[in-house]
Amino acid sequence: MSLPRRDFLKGIIATSGVMALGTILIPEILMAKEWPKDAFYAEKVEDVLLKLFEDADPAKSNQIIIEAPEIAENGAVVPIEVTAPFTNVDSITIIGDQNPTPLIAQFNFADNTEAWIKTRIKLGKTSNVVAVVKAEGKFYIAQRHVKVTIGGCGG
Question: Of 23, 51, 84, 141, which has the highest C-beta tally within 10 A?
Fold first, then answer.
């Protein structure tokens, strides 16, 4: 059974239309409309915190668990894992205090989601990896020292 040429062309045109519409709508839906541009361009940890959280004063917390190697052989690929056992966590922000641009990432969570991330980050040199957790309108902070033997930020 063969497909008539007319039906084939209708299918191509319909598919092209759907794909064209998808390239317009899907990025708008998937991409964040606003992102903390100023915080990513900040050069000091204090400035990052100010740009992201305004006048928040994060409380030190030993409940935030940051798993990272004590010594990272290559700063371009440093595995980290952060767990925040708080209820209603809004976000976890990762900062490398000695990086040229300290803000590494910010992960936002939906309601009733386990606040856990596992990723790989870049560290330019030996640094403190700082995790800032926003939960129920409060801010908590923890850090872990990582020694880098080969820099990962172009150094």
Answer: 84
